[in-house]
């Protein structure tokens, strides 16, 4: 009972007078937050398997935007959200891959756009982690992941070979 009262009081943003009235913040639906995030991730071209070239600066910019999108979604979710861990895993995978890209860019001497085998392996690893967590979000909340995103991120049951 006390938790529900505290939650209600936390949402109150103002009172009006002299007649009365109250206004409050209604939390965003978790499905809406995740739908928005899925749409934002779908817009990242460098993740498309059909994308040609490997522009390190573009990829770093894109990864930063993706991490910002995930962080924004995390900020909108309740700390008790069922999908919070999935988003934290996605953000960590993006962060780790971004570190790989930054390291390789620093090591390049001629700035050719040919990634190393290690970087390509890191890219696939990131896709698998993000895909597995998107699969879990789809299963838990029923937020549909677009088919193109499923292909690009390996969205499937974790440890599945399908």
Structure description:
Helix content is 61%, strand content 4%. The protein has helices at 2-11, 30-42, 56-76, 84-107, 117-141, 147-152, and strands at residues 12-15, 22-24. The protein has six helices and two strands. It has a single domain (28-152), classed as Up-down Bundle (Four Helix Bundle (Hemerythrin (Met), subunit A)). Helix 3 runs antiparallel to helix 4 (84-107) and helix 4 packs antiparallel against helix 5 (117-141). It is globular, with a radius of gyration of 20 Å. By secondary structure, the chain is mainly alpha-helical.
Topology at a glance:
Elements: H1 2-11, E1 12-15, E2 22-24, H2 30-42, H3 56-76, H4 84-107, H5 117-141, H6 147-152
Antiparallel strand pairs: 1-2
Helix pairs in contact: 2-3, 3-4, 4-5
Number of DSSP helices?
Answer: 6
CATH fold-level name: Four Helix Bundle (Hemerythrin (Met), subunit A)
Order of helices and strands: HEEHHHHH
Question: Class, according to the CATH hierarchy?
Answer: Mainly Alpha
Short synopsis of the structure:
The chain has helices at residues 2-11, 30-42, 56-76, 84-107, 117-141, 147-152; strands at residues 12-15, 22-24. With 162 residues, the chain is mainly alpha-helical. The protein has one domain (28-152): Up-down Bundle (Four Helix Bundle (Hemerythrin (Met), subunit A)), CATH 1.20.120.
